[in-house]
Amino acid sequence: MSDGVKCGILTISDRSSSGERPDLSGPTLAKHVSSLGWQVVLMTILPDEQAKISEVLKAWVDISKLDIILTTGGTSCAPRDVTPEATLSVIDRNIPGLAEAMRAKSIAINAHAMLSRLITGIRRKTLIINLPGSPQAALENLQVIESVLPHALSLLHEDPKAENEHQANMNRG
Predict the structure, then answer these.
(1) Where are the domains of the chain?
(2) Beta 6-12 vs 93-94: how paired, if at all?
(3) Cα 65 to Cα 48, 120, 169, distances in angstroms
(4) Beta-carbon neighbour count of residue 170 at 10 Å?
(5) How are beta strands 6-12 and 39-46 bridged, if at all?
C-alpha cells in the first residue's frame, strides 16, 4: 500500500518554530517520501511543548485521517525533548520493533544514537513514527524501516491481501 499513502510531517524544534533556524529535516523527509509515491498532506513546525505536539498528533489522526505521521526532533535527552512523551500520550499501541531497528542501525553509525528515545506506534489506523532532528539522521532512520511500512498499513487497514504479503515475505526468507 505505498500508492496513495497520506503522510504528515511534524518538525519539533524551538529554534525552527521561532524562525531562528530554518527547518531542514521536514523538507528532507518530504522530498524522500514524495519519491516513494506518498502524498505529503500536512507539514508544520512546533516548539518542544508536549501539549501542543499531542494536540497536533491527535488532530492529524482523528480529523485528517493520515496514514503515517513522521515527527522529527525532540527525541534526545535534553530537558525540552518531549516528543516521545507526547507520542506515548496519544498512541493506542506501541510498535517497538521499528524503533529498535532504527536505533540498532544508527548506533553502528554514531554511538550517540544510544541516547535516542524514538517511539513508534499506532493511533487508530495511523502509524506515528518519531525520527531524530538531524536531516541526515531522520532520513537514514526512515530508510531503515520504510520497506515494512506498506505491509503495516495493509494490516492496519485490514486489507485481505496483507496475509498474502506476509506469506510471500516468509517464503523469500
Answers:
(1) 6-146
(2) unpaired
(3) 24, 17, 28
(4) 8
(5) parallel
10 Å Cβ neighbour count for 112?
13
**Three-state SS for 130?**
strand
CA 20 to CA 22: how far, in whole Å? Answer: 7
pTM over 0.85: yes
Angstrom distance (rounded) from CA 114 to CA 104:
9
The alpha-carbon radius of gyration of the chain (Å, integer) is 15
Q: Is domain 6-146 annotated with CATH 1.10.443.10?
A: no
Cα torsion angle, 109, 105, 12, 1, sign: positive
Q: Which residues contact 167 (CB under 8 A, 6 or more apart)?
A: none
Do residues 145 and 101 touch, judged by C-beta distance below 8 A?
A: yes
Phi, psi of 147 (to 5 degrees): -70, -25
The predicted-structure confidence for 91-149, as pLDDT tens digits, reads as follows 999 999 999 999 999 999 999 999 999 999 999 999 999 999 999 999 999 999 999 99
